[in-house]
UniProtKB/TrEMBL annotation:
GO terms for molecular function: peptidoglycan L,D-transpeptidase activity; transferase activity. One of its GO terms (cellular component) is extracellular region. It comes from Allorhizobium borbori. This is Lipoprotein-anchoring transpeptidase ErfK/SrfK. The keyword Signal does not apply. InterPro entries: LD-transpeptidase (IPR050979), LD_TPept_cat_dom (IPR005490), Transpep_catalytic_dom (IPR038063).
Length: 456
C-alpha cells in the first residue's frame, strides 16, 4: 500500500458509490465534492481506482452496507458513510450534525488533509507469504511459529474453567493478505482475546486468541471469512485501520537515543523511555513497529501534522479479575471473574528451562504502574559483569515494562516488556511477561489477593 496526499478532492472522491459500477467511469467527472457513501479499503484508505463490472462481488453486511469482495472472497472495500471518514473541517461549529461529527457537506478543504491509498485491482491482488520471514527483530527458531503448531482450545471442567491443550487442525489462513489478518487480530484485540502485537501475520498467538474467544463467547469464529470479520468490526468500533495525525507531543517525546543491554548502563539513564516516535505509537496502537512503518512508507514520523495509518484497537477491558491462570505449555494467561467466566486472555512468555516459573497457586501481593526495577544478582539472575545491586529507572523499556504485578512468592510477578513482538515466542527469567498494554489492562482489573495458578 502506498500513502499519498490528494491534490484534488474530486479525484479522491471519484469512487463514491452512489451509481452502478458500470456507470462509474463515465460519471467520475460529474461528482460533487461530497455524496453520502465512500468506499474504503481494509487499510482504511479511499480507493483510487474504479472496480470494473465483474471484477468484484457485492455483498451486504448486517448493517445493510455494501462490501466488495474479489472472486476469492477477500475484502476489497467496505462502503461507509462519508461523514464518518472525512476530517472535521476548520469551519465546523460544535453541535454540527451527525452526533458531534461535522456535516461533511460543509467541508471547505482542498483535499490535502485526506489520505488515499493505491491497492491492486481485485484481479491482481498481491499476497505476502505468511511464513516468508520471522517477525521483525527476531531471528532463529524462537522467532518463528512452527507450521505444526495447533489451535489450542479451552474447556470447562467440574464447573471451574481450566485451560488444556488439545491437538487440533492447524489454523489455515493461506491466501489471506496481511491487511485481512490484521483485521482479524484487531477484532480479537477488541474482544479481549489478545493476539499480542498486531502485525498482519498468522501464527500461534492468533490461534490461541481464537480459542480464547470461543471460550469467552461460546461462538466459533471462522478466521478465513474476511467478510464476516469486517461486519463484526463495523459493530465493535469501525475500520481496523484508521487515520491518525501525529501531534507535537508525539514528536517531542521524551525519547532516549537507545537502550543498552547492560544493566549497569541502564541504571545510568534518566528513564527507560521509548527510543522513537514509531516505537511509542506502535505500542499505543497495539502494533508491531515494523508493521507501522510498512503501512506508512516514506512518512517522517517526527513531523507533527503528518497523517498516518494505525490500528484502531479496542477499549480497555473492564471488570474484576479474581483468578489468573498462567499456562506454561500454552504460553497464555487467562483472567477470570468471581463467577468463573473468562473475561480476558493474553499471550505470554512464562519462564524457561534455566529459570522456570513457580508452580502451584499464589496470590497477587501488590500492583505497581510505571515501576522502577531493582537488580540484585544474589536474589535474581546474573547479568553480564554486574555484581552489585542496581536501581534501574522506570519506563516502558525497563526490564519489567510499565507494569509490575507482584506475587506472594518473592521475586516473581506478572509484568510488561520492552519487546512486545517476542511475547509468546521467547523465554523469561521465571516471571510472566505480557505486552505493556495487556499487562496494563490486567493490572487495572485485578485486585490484591487474587489467586494466580501456574499450570504445566
Amino acid at each position: 500500500m502506498t500513502l499519498s496526499r490528494t491534490t484534488s478532492l474530486g479525484l479522491a472522491l471519484a469512487v463514491l458509490f452512489q451509481v452502478p459500477l458500470a456507470e462509474r467511469a463515465a460519471a467520475q467527472s460529474t461528482y460533487r465534492p461530497f455524496t453520502e457513501m465512500v468506499l474504503v479499503s481494509p487499510e482504511g484508505d479511499l480507493l483510487d481506482y474504479t472496480p470494473e463490472r465483474g471484477s468484484v462481488v457485492i455483498s451486504r453486511d448486517r448493517m445493510g452496507r455494501r462490501v466488495l469482495l474479489d472472486h476469492s472472497g477477500n475484502v476489497v472495500a467496505l462502503e461507509i458513510p462519508a461523514e464518518t471518514y472525512f476530517p472535521r473541517p476548520s469551519n465546523a461549529r460544535p453541535g454540527d450534525a451527525y452526533g458531534g461529527v461535522p456535516d461533511y457537506r460543509t467541508y471547505r478543504g482542498n483535499g490535502d488533509d485526506i489520505a488515499t491509498g493505491t491497492i491492486p485491482a481485485p484481479t491482481r491482488v498481491e499476497r505476502t507469504p505468511l511464513d516468508a520471514q520471522p517477525l521483525p527483530g527476531q531471528q532463529g527458531e524462537a522467532a518463528q511459529d512452527e507450521p505444526t503448531e495447533t489451535l489450542a482450545s479451552l474447556e470447562t471442567e467440574n464447573a471451574r474453567p481450566e485451560v488444556t491443550v488439545r491437538p487440533q487442525t492447524p489454523l489455515a489462513l493461506n491466501g489471506k493478505s496481511r491487511s485481512e489478518i490484521a483485521a482479524l487480530q484487531t477484532f480479537l484485540d477488541r474482544e479481549g482475546a489478545s493476539p499480542g502485537v498486531i502485525d498482519g501475520r498468522n501464527g500461534s498467538n492468533v490461534a490461541k486468541a481464537l480459542a480464547a474467544y470461543e471460550t469467552m463467547t461460546g461462538e466459533r469464529l471462522d478466521p478465513a471469512n474476511s467478510e464476516d470479520i469486517m461486519q463484526r468490526l463495523s459493530v465493535s468500533g469501525g475500520l481496523p485501520i484508521v487515520n491518525y495525525t501525529i501531534t507535537p507531543e508525539d514528536a517531542a517525546g521524551p525519547y532516549v537515543a537507545s537502550i543498552p543491554e547492560d544493566y549497569g548502563l541502564k541504571a545510568q539513564l534518566p528513564a527507560m523511555s521509548y527510543t522513537s516516535v514509531t516505537e511509542a505509537l506502535a505500542e499505543r496502537f497495539h502494533m508491531d513497529e515494523a508493521y507501522l512503518k510498512e503501512l506508512n512508507p516514506g512518512v517522517d514520523f517526527t513531523i507533527p501534522g503528518s497523517i498516518i495509518k494505525v490500528i484502531s484497537p479496542g477499549e480497555r477491558k473492564t471488570g474484576t479479575v479474581t483468578r489468573i491462570v498462567a499456562d506454561k505449555a500454552q504460553k497464555q494467561v487467562f483472567a477470570y471473574d468471581d463467577t468463573g467466566a473468562l473475561i480476558a486472555a493474553y499471550p505470554a512468555t512464562i519462564g524457561s528451562s534455566d529459570t522456570p516459573s513457580p508452580s502451584g497457586t499464589h496470590t497477587v501481593d501488590r500492583i505497581a504502574l510505571d515501576p522502577g526495577y531493582t537488580y540484585n544478582p544474589k536474589i535474581n539472575f546474573k547479568q553480564g559483569e554486574n555484581h552489585g545491586i542496581l536501581q534501574i529507572p522506570p519506563g516502558p523499556n525497563g526490564p519489567v515494562g510499565n507494569v509490575w504485578i507482584a506475587l506472594s512468592k518473592p521475586t516473581y510477578g506478572i509484568h510488561g516488556t520492552p519487546e512486545p513482538s517476542k511475547i509468546g515466542k521467547t523465554n523469561s527469567h521465571g516471571c510472566v511477561r505480557l505486552t505493556n498494554w495487556d499487562a496494563t489492562e490486567l493490572a487495572k482489573m485485578v485486585k490484591v489477593g487474587a489467586t494466580v495458578e501456574f499450570i504445566d
